[in-house]
Each structure stands twice: as C-alpha cells, then as structure tokens.
UniProtKB/TrEMBL annotation:
Entry protein name: Aminotransferase
GO molecular function: pyridoxal phosphate binding; transaminase activity
Source species: Novipirellula herctigrandis
Needed co-factor(s): pyridoxal 5'-phosphate
Keywords: Aminotransferase, Pyridoxal phosphate, Transferase
Length: 368
C-alpha cells in the first residue's frame, strides 16, 4: 500500500455494486436488473427550471443550508407532517451527503450504531470512516423491523438506531406499529434514530409511515434522487432537531459547501410535479416480477422502493449471480448487502421488455 494512504481507507472495500456496473460495461446488450435508479427521465418541467436558473445566472454557491425558496417549501411540508416544537431542515448534497454529515456530526469513535441486515452498502463504510462500530441485526427471512431484536442488541455504547424503510435491498416496508415501537424504544433509552427515507415516495401498499411521527428527536434523510430520477443532481434534504441540523451544516460548510444551485431550483419545481403515474407503473412492475417468481423463489414481497431480494436456489448467492451473468442477466449478489451469501437483489426499475427477459432467465435458472 502507498505510504501516504490513510489507514481508515483500508477498513472497507469499494462498493460491490460498482464492480457489477463495471462488468455491465463489458457486456454487449445485457439485461440489466442491477441498477439502483429509476428507468424514467427527469420530468421536463424540472429540467426547464434548472436550465432557466443557469441562464439567469444562478450558478454561484448557494447558502450552505440551501436556497431560501426550496428550504422554505421543504420546511412547510415537513411542519405539516411533523408539527414538532423543534424541527429544522436544510438541503444536503444528495442523501448520501446527508448520511455522511449525520454520521460525522453524531458518531464518536467507539459509538455503536444498530441497523438491520440486509443493509444499504454505505452504512458500514460511513461508520468506519468516523470510527463508529456497526451492529447489524439479522432480519432474515422476512426482513421485518423487529424491536425485540433491536432491544437485545443495545449496549451502553449504543448511540444510534439507523432505520431504512422502504428498504434497500429488500424493498420491505416497516409498518407503523414497528416504527412506533422502535421510535419509543429509542426515546426511552436516549438513543438517536436516523431514518433513511429516500424511497418514501415509492410506497405501494397502504400509507407511508416515519419514526418521526412517534419520536420528535428523529433525524430524517430524504431527497429527490430516486423520486424524480435526479440521481446525478445531488439534491437531498435533512430534517431534525435544530441543534443537530446546525452541527451538520457546520460540517457541510467545510466539506460539500452546498448542493449545486441550479439543481436546487429544479428540485423546487419538482415539489410541484405529480409522480402518481410513475408510482403506479412501478407498482405494476412489482406485481409482475413478484407473481412471475414467487412460485420458484423464496421472496419477501416488497412494499416499496424498486427492489426484490430473492433467496438463491443454490448454496451461494454470489455463485448464482455468476450463473445469471453468464446468461447475460445482471443482478447483484446479496453478500454485498449482508453478512449472508444466500440471496440476490433484483431491481425492477427497468423496461417491461427487460423485466420479461430477466424473469424468463431467472425461471430457467430455477429449473422451471
């Protein structure tokens, strides 16, 4: 290793998802069910708002906390949902930026953070960057948010419970009663709740719920990347207790500085754009893939996001993914998201034709 490289960088590897993306670039016309972003484009109204901002000279730094109109619109939306006495909001450089700021603001070396396994790949890496200790809690086989398992994992070093619903990679959504139980447990134990809600608009069954409804100290991460296909625009937002928000802003000032200003004007317009057609389309895609695979794979039916996490019909999820790739189907091995190597992730954020081709290959690999 080069002598100038910091030790902290050796505690985690590059994202395994990126490795699959690199492989995809080498294949000719793969059936790609690995992508973690919508297959539709940014709405035209949003594009035009950003273009207008650029043409009108809104190309400089914005205030660190975000442009005033966007922040005020977000504040009104958040206040309507969570009328807490002390809740502030700011615009982050994507939800990934928001997660990093939250960890750097709240986690000291040795602090423990509980989250469910399977998990979004960024969680353990971010914790290691700031010296935190990851405490993954096994949620197999149904991937539910189990308050008793979380309670059993709490120690005197527990600083935070990290919740992700709808979840990546499983698509499973926590119920209001599950979230309430975890939120109340955290309040009782004086533990922070960080809720990653980037897939909150991709919710297919019932009504979306947040732990912020049951614990006024909850810190929420959300954004426009997935909902409006703006993954490259880097506009997220965070809301929570004002002192936590001020600390996150202090770190943003010396790191990301701000979210790109033209993209923020696009996000302001995005708040007025209906997503109903896209959500209905993704509900239909979810139903198609689930019904096509449920008879030959063990799958927890996803209630949100655009992922499924089936159990591989072989001993190794990674080996199964290699078989699928040899057939031209790109999916993600489950061990990227988990301590177990038993499952794989499908993204149904793809065209209907790609989904049909992918389902046919998966049924064939299952021997159907």
């Amino acid at each position: 290793m080069h002598p100038w490289i910091a030790d902290r960088t050796t505690t985690f590897d590059s994202s395994g998802i990126r490795k699959v993306f690199d492989l995809a670039a080498k294949l000719k016309d793969p059936i790609n069910l690995s992508i973690g972003q919508p297959d539709f484009d940014v709405p035209d109204e949003v594009k035009e708002a950003a273009i207008e901002a650029i043409r009108n000279g809104k190309n400089s730094y914005s205030p660190t906390q975000g442009i005033g109109p966007l922040r005020e619109a977000l504040r009104e939306e958040v206040q309507a949902k969570y009328p807490h006495e002390d809740r502030d909001v700011f615009v982050s450089s994507g939800t990934s930026g928001g997660l990093m700021l939250a960890m750097l603001s709240m986690i000291n070396p040795g602090d423990e953070v509980i989250y469910m396994d399977p998990f979004f790949v960024m969680y353990p890496a971010l914790l290691k960057m700031c010296g935190g200790v990851a405490v993954p809690v096994d949620s197999y086989p149904d991937f539910r948010l189990d308050v008793e398992k979380i309670k059993a994992a709490i120690t005197p070093r527990t600083k935070m419970i990290l919740v992700n619903s709808p979840a990546n990679p499983t698509g499973v959504t926590a119920t209001a009663s599950e979230l309430k139980a975890v939120a109340q447990l955290a309040a009782e134990k004086n533990i922070a709740v960080l809720s990653d809600e980037i897939y909150s608009r991709f919710f297919y069954d019932g009504t979306f719920a947040s732990p912020a409804s049951y614990n006024d100290q909850t810190i929420v991460i959300d954004g426009f990347s997935k909902s409006h296909a703006m993954t490259g625009w880097r506009v997220g937002y965070v809301h929570g207790p004002s002192e936590i928000i001020r600390t996150m802003l202090k770190i943003q000032q010396y790191s990301f500085v701000c979210s790109p200003q033209p993209a923020q004007w696009g996000a302001l317009r995005a708040m007025e754009v209906s997503l109903d057609g896209h959500i209905e389309a993704y509900r239909r895609k979810r139903d198609f893939v689930y019904s096509a695979l449920a008879d030959c794979y063990e799958i927890a039916k996803p209630g949100g996001a655009f992922y499924m996490f089936p159990k591989a019909p072989t001993d190794s999820g990674e080996a199964f993914v290699e078989q699928a790739i040899s057939r031209g189907l790109l999916i993600i091995p489950g061990n990227i998201f988990s301590a177990r190597d038993s499952h794989f992730r499908i993204s149904f954020a793809a065209s209907d034709e790609q989904l049909k081709q992918g389902v046919d290959i998966l049924r064939s690999l299952a021997g159907v």
